[in-house]
Amino acid sequence: MTNTVRAEVITIGDEILFGQITDTNTAWIGTELTNIGVRVVRKTSVGDQQDAILQSLQEAHQRADIIIITGGLGPTKDDITKKTLCTYFGVGMVRNEIALALVTGFFEKRGREMTDLNRGQADLPANATYMQNDWGTAPGMWFEHEGRVYVSLPGVPFEMKHLMSNRILPKLTEHFKTPIIKHKMIRTVGIGESFLAERIEAWEDALPDHIKLAYLPSFGGVKLRLTATGDDNALLDQELAEQVAKVMPLIEKNVYGFDSDEIENVVGKLLVEKNLTLSVAESCTGGYVSAQITKVPGSSAYFWGSVVSYSNSVKISQLGVQPETLDQFGAVSEETIRQMAEGVRKTLGTNVGIATSGIAGPGGGTPEKPVGTIWIACATDQRTVTRLLKLGQYRDQNIQLTTMYVLNMLREELINQ
Amino acid sequence: MTNTVRAEVITIGDEILFGQITDTNTAWIGTELTNIGVRVVRKTSVGDQQDAILQSLQEAHQRADIIIITGGLGPTKDDITKKTLCTYFGVGMVRNEIALALVTGFFEKRGREMTDLNRGQADLPANATYMQNDWGTAPGMWFEHEGRVYVSLPGVPFEMKHLMSNRILPKLTEHFKTPIIKHKMIRTVGIGESFLAERIEAWEDALPDHIKLAYLPSFGGVKLRLTATGDDNALLDQELAEQVAKVMPLIEKNVYGFDSDEIENVVGKLLVEKNLTLSVAESCTGGYVSAQITKVPGSSAYFWGSVVSYSNSVKISQLGVQPETLDQFGAVSEETIRQMAEGVRKTLGTNVGIATSGIAGPGGGTPEKPVGTIWIACATDQRTVTRLLKLGQYRDQNIQLTTMYVLNMLREELINQ
């Protein structure tokens, strides 16, 4: 088995340090590198200062075989990354004609005038291998230096992803001989980390040394990640499958999916399989449930639509909720949530209807119905199930958790269809 | 003026390196530290390995006055952070009775049985000042060591935020004498970074040395961040206000807000000011527009509801779109978007109605209407405006950009009301 290939990711930009933007690039890069068997050992964010960038490059050089740098290539960044790489590698800047042609074409195509700032984006360090960016004017660059590979990418996520997927990852796989690392993720909902840990303790203790388990608590669920390392692809797959088969009986009712399955994809697949259509009535989630469902490409095959009924008048006019029900029990009640789920199913003419209504906060709470009091329901042609959630005081969390729970309720109902 | 206080943020967890979770904590911490005049000079993510954590602590010690550590405190993490801090500081672990009482109470309150794993969370390095976590069982810790302050916090975002806001930030402000750093953010939409840069070039070049400008391109807009450093609070505010007054005439029509203003908050304020109500008809955005609007606490004061009409039948039954219009022009057409905006306004009985309809992709494109062809509209009692967007091929981007543009269209209409 060959040695582990180590990578470090360096992101450049004051805006990341100052928290003006959230860095989502490094998580994505981490996943992609892990999937080709490269071990990410560190991520570093530094500002737009040459000395800080140089120091981070020197440190990374000591620890890693691959150094991936994102950001600092924008025209108004004065291309700090390229200038710093010239200093670091001890080379000059050379205008790249292919890059220039692409920048020029990019602006012609959009009928915009090109500025010198833009033209300067075609200048690259002399030792760079140019990696074509099809989606923007900032170049991708590949360097080989003292036995390490350095890669510089733009910080704009979709440009970076395009370059990584189509240019860099294939070249890295080709360049390095890596051990095989296989992951299997089991996604659970409705059970806390420590309780899950105790339930599967015996199984976990019996795992072979080359298979590691990690608990990844996240919003509304805990993910179990199995990581197997070896040199026999088929064998690793088989061993992971065996371990999953062993643990499933202990946690079956809490498992909604595997690997990259998101709850919205899982219910989508179930709706397609069972040839059922879905509609949604949302009060406190305000459209978030629908937005999650429609994140899935092709969701129009089973999702017909939603009514976001923030005001009672809309609950009455669009969902057929009885005014007396609202008067007697209020909008946040089992009676109302039942009428919302059944109402949207009937009005929009779908097989299944789900609904949410509650107090997301921070305002609107009462002693009887404090912030976090939320009802969810799922109506099918067979029955309507309802459930009361008692959540916390944070609006965003209440919206996201309610969405997770109502989609899981839908999943449980669909399994029985 | 006192010297700049420098901070580094270290996040601990394989799940961050492997990209299993996106680190949103450090962006939030970066903002909060920046706002109290602390300069964040680096962010580092390392795995759950003692040697890597120790190395990152030693490096940070060389560069920073404040070292903030998040993560590695969960029960199943075997509290790697605490054990490593004991090694780093050369101290032993001591059970903290206040922490134990809180952990015990936390479980009693929830009627759950406490495990030894949980009990262990009350053990702290001997030199730790215990910082009470009101929202979970993982402790906050404050250390003073060789003239530096070390802070250890749980990785769960809402627990970390609670500890930072209520315990750590006040203590840091008290402990360090920091120069005054003031920020002013100008948020623009509908103009590219390099074009914005050229338009304000003369103004930018004339900025005094102690006021810096940064361009922060983000989805659907570019933010301009002015940073002023000095020791006279009132003077800095005045100088920033003067610079904003100078640049505004050049970019007025592209500016939707300042500082933390999000477009959904800006339109919310306008609707309240003008005492107008809003409804939304969403096709391709699938609920995302509504979800953004309802992220704002108190949005129920002006937002009555939405119809997410993914299927044509819902466009007809809920929005009153004419079947002939759909037959003749299709769902993605100026005629349809007009009827959707006017329809939702009428059906839900609001003053203003906005609508989106298009091909978000990846499927559904045609030669005449490729993926990214999206119509938006805004209907008031005075008129209905429509606009055709020609966006890219990425579903998520198309949904987010369309939302930004339709909310900005709403903003422009509200200003004229």
TrEMBL record, chains A, B:
<dbReference type="Pfam" id="PF02464">
    <property type="entry name" value="CinA"/>
</dbReference>
<dbReference type="InterPro" id="IPR036653">
    <property type="entry name" value="CinA-like_C"/>
</dbReference>
<dbReference type="InterPro" id="IPR041424">
    <property type="entry name" value="CinA_KH"/>
</dbReference>
<dbReference type="InterPro" id="IPR001453">
    <property type="entry name" value="MoaB/Mog_dom"/>
</dbReference>
<dbReference type="InterPro" id="IPR008136">
    <property type="entry name" value="CinA_C"/>
</dbReference>
<dbReference type="InterPro" id="IPR050101">
    <property type="entry name" value="CinA"/>
</dbReference>
<protein>
    <recommendedName>
        <fullName>CinA-like protein</fullName>
    </recommendedName>
</protein>
<dbReference type="Pfam" id="PF00994">
    <property type="entry name" value="MoCF_biosynth"/>
</dbReference>
<feature type="domain" description="MoaB/Mog">
    <location>
        <begin position="8"/>
        <end position="175"/>
    </location>
</feature>
<dbReference type="Pfam" id="PF18146">
    <property type="entry name" value="CinA_KH"/>
</dbReference>
<comment type="similarity">
    <text>Belongs to the CinA family.</text>
</comment>
<dbReference type="InterPro" id="IPR036425">
    <property type="entry name" value="MoaB/Mog-like_dom_sf"/>
</dbReference>
<dbReference type="InterPro" id="IPR008135">
    <property type="entry name" value="Competence-induced_CinA"/>
</dbReference>
